[in-house]
Write a structure and sequence with these properties.
Chain lengths: 274, 274
Amino acid sequence: MTHHPFDHAMQLLPGATAHSFAGATSPDYWNMVGPFGGYTAALAVQAVMQHPALLGEPVALTVNYAGATTQGPFTVTATPARTNRSTQHWVIALSQTNAAGEPEVAMTATVMTALRRDTWHTNDMPMPVVTPVNAAAKDHRDGAPVWLDRYDMRFVHGSIPQEFDGREASSLTQLWMRDEPPRPLDFVSLTAMADVFYPRVWLRRAKRVAAGTVSMTTYFHASQAQMTDVGTGYLLGQAQAQAFRHGFFDQTAQLWSGAGTLLATSTQLVYYKE
Amino acid sequence: MTHHPFDHAMQLLPGATAHSFAGATSPDYWNMVGPFGGYTAALAVQAVMQHPALLGEPVALTVNYAGATTQGPFTVTATPARTNRSTQHWVIALSQTNAAGEPEVAMTATVMTALRRDTWHTNDMPMPVVTPVNAAAKDHRDGAPVWLDRYDMRFVHGSIPQEFDGREASSLTQLWMRDEPPRPLDFVSLTAMADVFYPRVWLRRAKRVAAGTVSMTTYFHASQAQMTDVGTGYLLGQAQAQAFRHGFFDQTAQLWSGAGTLLATSTQLVYYKE
C-alpha cells in the first residue's frame, strides 16, 4: 500500500459475506457524471486479486457498465464460479443502494485467472514506430474531468480534435501514457489504462456527441513479473474503431511496454447518442 | 421452428425456475471432446432471446468456457441483472450435474441487449477484396469433427496447413461461410459462426498443438432486419492473432455480409498447450 491516489481509490475492505468487498468512489478518478470507466473496471480485478481463493493471475476480463455509478459507497461481489487445476472463473457485480433503499447493479463482470507457464511465444502485433515519448508533448486541457490529471498522456497520433468542425478523419489514436504521479504497473492499473482512450466517435467525426462505454473486454498477455520489469515506464496505447451503427461503436486497443512487449489487448463497445 | 439441425440443437425448454432453461447437447454440433464452442456460446444468446423479460436485441456477448461440457442435459440460467429504458444486462450460466451429483458450472456469460435506433453510421473496417465465393472451393476433411459438416466453409486465405511442418506463417485466415444446409441468419447462428475459426496457433506455427477457446466476446453491429436481408447468403469471416504467450493467444475476428456490411466483430482468448 502506497500513498498513490490509485491505491487509495482501489481500497476494498472485507464485506458482509465471504465473497463481498466494501469500497467507495474516489473523487480523484471522477469523470463528468460518474467515475472514470477504467477505475470501475479496475475494481473488478482488484476484488479478484484480494480474494483469498484466488488461483493464478488475471488473463481475461469483461466488464459491463449496467447503470450509473454514483458518488459514495458500493459493494463488489467476486464469486469463484469454477476452479480448475490451473484456471479459475469469476463472476463479479458492483452494486449500490438506490434512492428507494434497494441494492442496484451498476456493473457486471467476469474474470478468468490462470497459472502462467512458459510456452512458445511470439508477438503478431508489433509496436508501431511513433514519435518517442521524450519528443511528445504532455496533454493538458483546462476544465477537463479530474481523472485526466491522474494520467500523463502524450498523444503521437489522433489527439482530441482541436476544432469540432465535423471534418471526418481516421479513428486511430496512439499515445504514450503512465500514471500521474508515476506508479509501478500491475494488473489493476493496466486494466484502468486500457480505458483511457476518449470516444472514437469524437475523432472520427470531429463532433462531440454524448458517448460512454457499455462493455469492455481486456486480455492480459503479460505476467506480474513482466509488469514489474516495466515499472513506472510509459506504455504505448493504440485504439481504433471498426463499426459505428445504431447508437453503438466498437474499439480495438493494444497496450505495449516501451520495450515493445504487447502487455494487453482490449476491445470495447461504446454508446453514442446520434 | 424449422427442421434445421441448428434449430434442433438450440432447443431450450422452460426450466425449474423463472430464469432457467433446460436443454441437451446435440450430436450434430459435436467437436472432439465436447460441443463446438460456437454452439455453447449460441445457447447463451438463445436463452436471452427466449426470456419473456427480453428488451431489444443482443449488442454484446461474452462467454467464458469454465469447464468441459459433457454429452447430455444441461441447465442455462439467464438473469436480467439490470433493465434500463433502452438497454438490459444479463448474467448467464450453463451448468451440468457432475459425477458426484452436484451442479457444476461449465460456462459463464454476460449479454447486453438494447433497442436499436437509427444514428449516424459508418464502417471503418471495409470488407477485404478476396476471391468470390463461387470461385472458392468448399472445404472438406475426412475424419473431421462432425460440427464441421454443419458449415459450408470456403477458405480464401490461411486454410488449415496442408502439412504440419513447423513452417511459420501469418496467422490470418479469411473464409466464406454459411450454415449447411443453408439457414436464414439470426443472432444465434451469427454467434456460433463467430467461433468457426480453427486455432490460430496451428496456422501460425504449422504445428498441431492442443488448443481450446477459454473466453470469447462478440459485438453485434447488425439488427435482426439486416440479418433478414442477408438471409442464407454467405458471410466473409476473417481472424488474426495478436499475441501468443504463457499458454494463451488472442484472436480478433470480423464477419461481413456478402454485400460488405460488418455484421459482427469478435475477439477470443485461446489456451494452447506448448
